[in-house]
Amino acid sequence: MNKILGIIILGFLLPQLSLSQKIKGSDTVLPLSQKEAEVYMQKHPEATVTVTGGGSGVGIAALLEGTTDIAQSSRRIKFDEKNKLKNMDKEVVEVIVGYDALAVITHPSNPIKKLTREQLEGIFRGKIKNWKELGGEDLRIIPYSRETSSGTYEFFKESALRYKNYMNGIMSMPATGSVIQSISQTRGAIGYVGLAYVNPSVQAMELSFDGGKNYSNPLNTETSDVIYPIVRPLYFYYIQKEEAGIKPFLDYVLSDEGQQLVADLGFIKVK
Predict the structure, then answer these.
(1) What is the domain count for the chain?
(2) Which of 61, 56, 57, 63 is nearest to 22 (CA)?
(3) Which one, of 183, 174, 188, lies nearest residue 202 by Cα?
């Protein structure tokens, strides 16, 4: 009788302590979530953690729809998104899992190595159209942006453009990988990506947000005395009622080992 009762109780607990979890959202957070999930599943063979991208807005929309357990996001959840969840009797929990430096990248042949915030604004608003205006080659500037559902798109608009609109007709890319590929193949191109995506096929620019007095490179965020100006938190969002099933994986991500993976991937640790 006790054995039967135990099986019945276990049957009620299993849906709450699900060993299968879905993570969806930000392309910036994607390599971090994938690596954390990979190592976690090696340590816990009974667990399955599925990770997909699509953009921060896509992840939060999936949380609203109930089609993901965790929304990974490179921006904070919006007021209206939070309200929609509240209206559905879903209390959302926010956890910072790391920090990311947003790198401004160009084709590696570009002789321009440094830009100020004002110059960035001029480029992405369409006011500066040729690299010779900045002391470079007589070459048309081709700015690449992420699509509007991307948290990276919104963060760059907030930090570099001071909430001003991007130029009309800007090249809008659906994923970070496509930004990297396009810029690596286009001599006049410029764009922005999460630091973990930077590779030798592109050049990361030094930036100044104090009018050219101090410049810093995103590749030196841990060692430079000058604070890199475009750094943002990376978030996991989940529904509070579902915390029991999510907590073991989340605890691993925030552990010393999980945070070392954050650093190994080129992100900045929470602690």
Answers:
(1) 2
(2) 63
(3) 183
